[in-house]
Amino acid sequence: MNNNDLTASLLNFLDASPTPLHAVQNMASSLDSAGFELLDEASEWTLQPRRGYYTIRGGSSIVAFTTAEQTPMTTGIRMVGAHTDSPCLKIKPRPEKLKSEYFQLGVEVYGGVLLNPWFDRDLSIAGQTSYLDAVNRIHTALIDFQEPIAVIPSLAIHLDRDVNNSRSINPQQQLPIILSRSGDDGENDLRKVLLDKLKENHPEQEIISVLDFDLSLYDTQPAQIIGIRHEFIASARLDNLVSCFTGLRALTDCNSELPCLLVCNDHEEVGSQSAIGAQGPFLRSILQRWCGSVQGCDQAVHRSILISADNAHAIHPNFPDKHDSNHGPLLNKGPVIKVNHNQRYATNSVTSSIYRNMCDKKGIPVQVFVSRSDMACGSTIGPLTAGELGVQTLDLGIPQFAMHSIRELCGADDVDYLYRSLIEFFNVETLF
Ligand code: CO
After folding, report:
1. Arithmetic mean of pLDDT, 420-428
2. Once rounded to an integer, what is the mean pLDDT over residues 208-235?
3. Residues lining ligand 1 (ion), CB within 5 A?
């Protein structure tokens, strides 16, 4: 597999994954194709050696792992973690608004959204809906309108002459999306729109009514290779679907003889504390089942390393003073080790040395990031998973611009570097 094929598959994955639910569904179908077996958390598990398994919680968090001849207690587990969610606008439970004869929907801001880039985009809606059939059974199905059906138009500069100096955005008043002019027939009801779409998607079922939904807005502009040298990838959700995709491909391509695992959690962008988030019990529960006991799990964890993969901030040529001048990662110059001694990142000098050594042997460049001493630092699932499990962790990620914008930018070579380094990690004989 060369770099171009990897990039093309990544672009397809990004376009097909407008929400964490869709991302996990797509990851599951890749795992099915690679011969992994789906495990139900509500059933008892009997795991065989040298097999691939995966399980899904809440539809939007997934753990996939490969068993080996040796147990995790003897070899440890090579673990990679990432997050499936990205900041976005979600539709409110009773969203309908009729203002100035427009049919609009109110939105809730999910995570740390960079709001300005959401204006003047050709938006669509995706997520899941739960509905009732004719015999009073509840079904839940993914939904994706795919077409551009909504927009948040900017206010013209003529109506706000100061906009380029002092615009701030009130999400309650200024972000409701426009779906249409309001119909005279009174059909300004999102549930009716969803019901029609569900009937179209599931003609075999008699669908009576839509009970509830979890829907997000997204940009219909597809992911794209850009730049005069075709070296950049522009897309929504690069943070952090790049790491989910790359971790998955590395896991299914590595042919490792050792126990390996990929965990991709939802809810990172809102703090990770949930039944399916990195600060919840999902991963530990799987490790205990795999290892057979609490003691076995702890034994395995102490021989393991987690690489928490989440994108890093590249130094922006127009804003160079936002970085420490010795720690300004560049696009296409390799994955970035993220350091913060206040434990916003879980990297320590042992885990970073192991990774550097692996990359040096394969000629993969590595960069390092620490934030300016006078600026606050972001965080990710690394320190939270480390805190839950007690596992030695490396926080790592490819560099990108415009984090949390609706259109982010990263380097195509970095995806390949990350992929190759994770394959190396899954195959490395001895960790410590
Ligand atoms: Co992230």
Report:
1. 97
2. 97
3. 239-240, 310
Within this chain, do residues 194 and 177 fall inside the same structural domain, yes or no?
A: yes
Q: How far is the CA of 385 from the centre of ligand 1 (A)?
A: 14
pLDDT band for position 186 (50/70/90)? low
Q: Span 375-398, mean pLDDT?
A: 92
Q: What is the CATH number of the domain that holds 214?
A: 2.30.250.10
Cα of 84 vs centre of ligand 1, distance in Å, is 9
The rounded Å distance from CA 340 to ligand 1 centre is 16
CA of 247 to the centre of ligand 1 (A): 14
Q: pLDDT tens, 314-360?
A: 999 999 999 999 999 999 999 999 999 999 999 999 999 999 999 99
Answer whether residue 185 shows pLDDT above 80: no
Q: What is the pLDDT of residue 167?
A: 84
Stated as kind and residue range, the H or E segment containing 249 is helix 238-253
Give Rg (Cα) of the chain. Answer: 22
What DSSP string runs through 163-216? Answer: HHHH----HHHH-PEEEEEPPTTS---HHHHHHHHHHHH-TTS-EEEEEEEEEE
Domain boundary among 155, 188, 219: 219
What is the distance in A from the centroid of ligand 1 to the CA of 249? 19
**Lateral strand order in the sheet of 408-411:** 224-226, 232-235, 408-411, 399-401, 312-313
Instruction: Tell me the mean pLDDT in the region 138-165.
Output: 96
Neighbours of 141 (CB within 10 A): 13
- For residue 316, the CA-to-ligand 1 centroid distance in Å is 18
Expressed as residue numbers, the domain containing 52 is 4-86+236-427
In the chain, the number of structural domains is 2
- CA–centroid distance, 85 to ligand 1, in Å, is 8
* 207 vs 189: CA distance, rounded Å: 17
Q: What is the pLDDT of residue 1?
A: 42
C-alpha of residue 80 to centroid of ligand 1, in Å: 14
pLDDT over threshold 80, residue 123 = yes
CA of residue 185 to ligand 1 center, whole Å: 44
